[in-house]
Amino acid sequence: MCACMKTLRSHVKFVSNAACLESRSFESIPGPPRIPLIGSLNDIIHLGNPKKLHLTISKLHETYGSIVRLKISDTNAIFIKDPAMMRNVFAHEGKYPKHPLPPAWTYFNNKHNCKRGLFFMDDEEWFIYRKLLNRPLMRDTSWMVEPIKRVCDKTAKNLFEAEGASRGSVTVDNIEAILYKWSIEVILSLMLGSSYNQGNVDKLDDLIDRFSQIVYQIFLYSSKLMVIPPALADRLQLDAWKSFERIVPETLDIANGIIDIALDEIKRSDGLLSELQNCIHSREIIKRIFADFIIAAGDTTSFATLWCLYLLAENQKIQSHIRSSIKDDYQESPLVRGAIKETLRLFPIAPFIGRILEKDAKIGCYNIPQHTLALLSLYSAGRDSKNFHSPHEFLPQRWLRGDDNRQLFSPFNANASLPFAIGSRSCIGQKVAQYQMHFLISKILKYYQVSVLNKGQVDAELKMVTVPNANIRLVFETIAE
Asked: 102-350+446-481 domain in CATH 2.20.25.90?
């Protein structure tokens, strides 16, 4: 990891210096003026509706350029959509990278003295456990293929066993719930390895169903609390805070219940849980790490897969072309991989990735003081015509390698789409997400024609993550052998 970061820093330094030799002050970065005396009301004026924050920031970029300066509450912040500047941020993240946390979650954890998993850890604590998890989750990942395959097989089969299936087709109105459960079961299969069999599935099934039903509400209520300080929402006993304060303990209790069964009642010979027990002797730490894995998986991968299925259903010719490229259910297809990358370009699950700069830094032409919050505008960068040819079109083939492809789809800047981030605090679950999305989508496309019943276009809105603004209704029709 250290060698990679040194290479990244030297590359970014070269690009940055070549692009801009002059130095400009932080105050010279363009951005909307802050109105004196009204304090945090500026945030509401500048940031607007939290559900449409990705669109608001895109408009600010159109007005002020690739880097925009804002004061969010008492924090100096910059939004960046230039690919070279985005990579530069990671080069200045330091040994213990710090990222912004949802205010409601931070306030809740402090109020209730609630210790959480890797996402919430910092400094040496984060470094120790991240280092332990890097090998099985980021480097030596072949072990996870079979457990993920088993869950994807089951999920694809269950799609067609849904109520109402007839004459070779089924309409699925609750695809979101199905994908939620699939994501959680993937994490459990990785935890338990070959021990995740039908008997143990039955033992955990009720908890998994309950968890799938409530975990989404955490993100729903925490997004509502983005426009008001959570301490004030608590003091005023607003409904959003009361609901959030009720849902978080319930979700954590169910997640911990799942892990307790995995630790106490299921005999294991392989899987990530057994491996971690050999090097992490604190049961509490193991539970914290896996509880947050389960919570994160429920939302992020399920919505990314939902967006991918929707885009494929909306683009039947592309869907057929990708299907013809799939030689085997689980053999890697460059076009399936391209469809996933293209989905995350158009609908990054985290539309903003943030880092709190450890030291003073030069980003582009600007001198940025330490402790500045740097936010990468992935939604804006991914849809910028300077970075991608026909940026609003779903074109998975743009991600194929080859000189002919580069000419057809120029401009193309892969650095403008960094859905998992880069650097030492990149998403620890990215390999899991890539495997499970690739396997499930390949399985579905090989055996089903997917179409969408929604009449109008489905757009994105933010509820902490990028979600559809309408219920997506998909039809799965079996393909004749």
From this structure: no
